Amino acid sequence: MKLFNQGGLAGSAISYAGLIEKIEILRSTLRWASRLERAEIEKLLKQATTLRDEVMQLSHKERFVQAAVAETAPADLAPRERRQALLERSFIFEGTFGDNPKLLEALEIAEKAAPTDLPVLIDGESGTGKELMAKVIHANGSRTDKPYISVNCGAIPENLIESELFGHKKGAFTGASADRRGKFESAHTGTIFLDEIGELPLTGQVKLLRVLESHEIQRVGSDETISVDTRIVAATNRDLRRLSDEGRFREDLFYRLSVIHVTLPPLRERRDEIGLLVAYFGDEAAGALKRRPVKLTPRLRDFLMNYAYPGNIRELRNLMYRISCLAGDTADLEHLPQDLRPKSAAPAMAAGGSPPGGADASTAASLSEAKRAASDEAERAFLERGLLEVGGTVAELARRFDMNRSHLQMLLKKHGIHSKDFRNQGTAQGGKAR
Ligand SMILES: Nc1ncnc2c1ncn2[C@@H]1O[C@H](COP(=O)(O)OP(=O)(O)O)[C@@H](O)[C@H]1O
Ligand SMILES: [Mg+2]
């Protein structure tokens, strides 16, 4: 199933995507021009006229293909039937999904986008499944046997981004002791997943834009151009439109990356899927921990069904792994992280002993000691909870709470918390390290 004529991206055939690209190039030229000569105005006018003619000529065939694709999932089908239809079309999704219309819509878009080479932008809060979705798009496309290369743009120091993405020539900078190929070259014929694209510095954005335009790269320090055929899937938990209004993300790059735009809803907007996910991760954790799936007391189930999950699916998954690891046959509220436990669970907790580290406000000898102990407890719970939500990435935690990273590191050290323990929790079953 093809959504658009893929040749359109190269600019030869007329396609919806090709036209959007041309319009963006035109807009970009106008946006970045400080002044224009009459001759240039004439040239741009001519381009605009051609574009208008091309829009009018969009072939019957193209319209037919688009209409046929639209028919595969008529929006007026009931969610249950839409879900069933997705499954019957042998759509590969390595996770679980129910009847939530918002998620179904995202999956249907991903399904249509997968067999094309169009760039896809996935947005959504941290832990909503963006990376999983990128893999799904790759797995359902024609490049599935080819490389899938993931790059976290937020985790690479600014001065190394370019070399990381495009490679470098020996001697290009201090430390470049040999020629090295970048991620784009490694992803040739396959897919590159650019995670946290909103963190890419402006200089990197310009370079990326050039790759999207020319399908060519240059290693740092080299004049040679290398053709790359790489499908781009990008993800962000930031509002790129707002970043571009603020001048921090190039608008033309945003439009080029988001030819197909998929938004993953936060878990609080698909609460009807929580029960399904609890069961799914209960089984998954049991498999990973080689144990029987944990049973849940009614009050714990009730809690899990009603909790807000600021860390979305990642948080739910981590909770299920934690519960499955700590509980015997049956899990109860006491197996939740301390700061999540509802007040009513307090007596059960007291029997469980004081928190690690020994600080316990209830047995303190003086008021000031009690205050300090309570404050330490709160601090520790806050850090653990935060790390769970962000999958153990200290930089992300620092950004989320607008805290200084080295101060955070110091607090973690004080409490003997290792951020990588939380990373492992999020990837306990063969997932990619984040
Ligand atoms: N629908 C789903 N079914 C099963 N697991 C899911 C689903 N969505 C997300 N996950 C899991 O939740 C965790 C977080 O997902 P991830 O793709 O890393 O989120 P993001 O990139 O948005 O932060 C991963 O372990 C992922 O496999
Ligand atoms: Mg992610």
UniProtKB/TrEMBL annotation:
<keyword id="KW-0067">ATP-binding</keyword>
<dbReference type="InterPro" id="IPR025943">
    <property type="entry name" value="Sigma_54_int_dom_ATP-bd_2"/>
</dbReference>
<dbReference type="InterPro" id="IPR003593">
    <property type="entry name" value="AAA+_ATPase"/>
</dbReference>
<dbReference type="Pfam" id="PF00158">
    <property type="entry name" value="Sigma54_activat"/>
</dbReference>
<protein>
    <submittedName>
        <fullName>Sigma 54-interacting transcriptional regulator</fullName>
    </submittedName>
</protein>
<keyword id="KW-0804">Transcription</keyword>
<keyword id="KW-0238">DNA-binding</keyword>
<dbReference type="InterPro" id="IPR027417">
    <property type="entry name" value="P-loop_NTPase"/>
</dbReference>
<dbReference type="Pfam" id="PF25601">
    <property type="entry name" value="AAA_lid_14"/>
</dbReference>
<feature type="region of interest" description="Disordered">
    <location>
        <begin position="344"/>
        <end position="370"/>
    </location>
</feature>
<dbReference type="InterPro" id="IPR025662">
    <property type="entry name" value="Sigma_54_int_dom_ATP-bd_1"/>
</dbReference>
<dbReference type="InterPro" id="IPR002078">
    <property type="entry name" value="Sigma_54_int"/>
</dbReference>
<dbReference type="InterPro" id="IPR009057">
    <property type="entry name" value="Homeodomain-like_sf"/>
</dbReference>
<dbReference type="InterPro" id="IPR058031">
    <property type="entry name" value="AAA_lid_NorR"/>
</dbReference>
<keyword id="KW-0805">Transcription regulation</keyword>
<feature type="domain" description="Sigma-54 factor interaction">
    <location>
        <begin position="96"/>
        <end position="325"/>
    </location>
</feature>
<keyword id="KW-0547">Nucleotide-binding</keyword>
<feature type="compositionally biased region" description="Low complexity">
    <location>
        <begin position="344"/>
        <end position="366"/>
    </location>
</feature>
<dbReference type="InterPro" id="IPR025944">
    <property type="entry name" value="Sigma_54_int_dom_CS"/>
</dbReference>
